[in-house]
Automatic annotation (TrEMBL):
Source taxonomy: Bacteria, Pseudomonadati, Bdellovibrionota, Bacteriovoracia, Bacteriovoracales
Molecular function, one GO term: RNA nuclease activity
Source organism: Halobacteriovorax marinus
Protein name: NYN domain-containing protein
Domain of life: Bacteria
Gene3D superfamilies per record: 5'-nuclease (3.40.50.1010)
Pfam families found in the cross-reference section: NYN
Ranges of residues in domain NYN: 11-149
Amino acid sequence: MSVEVVISQSVAVLVDGNNIERSIHSESSKQSTMLNFDTLIPKLLGNRGLNRFIYFREGKNISSKLAERLHSNYHGSVRACHKSADIPLSIKATQLAQKVDTIIIMSGDSDYIELVRHLKSEGVRVEIASIESTTSKLLVEEADYFHPITSDDWFTLKTSPQKRSTKKKVSKKVVKKD
């Protein structure tokens, strides 16, 4: 007789956008490569529920299309960070520690080792999702689980060739008056 196991874990996914973007661009050698959240998020969650999805990104120029897509598909949000995402992401993770069972940090940055230790001491399962070649081995060892992000998890935007201007250059004659 088989017994059905019901899993009701809630998960928060916190993304260090700059770190993940740099890693993907480095791995793909293309600046136009982006994560495919539509395939990656279900893979990370498995049969667990998504409680929060926050994409932290340094700078003010954050794609409104990305923000709209994350909100409409995952009720997620994009947070602009003054400098790096390390501190805002760490603060949010500690705030969420009592509200979720698992926190998935999408970054390979060794700066998160102390955060991982703290969250685990609070009883939170901590998983890391990142590009293996650019991820701190110590971070992977500290985490409860590591999800390697591979080329299956991203896509490259097709860039249209530069359009040539069809306008003719008009030169103006300068007439000097004596």
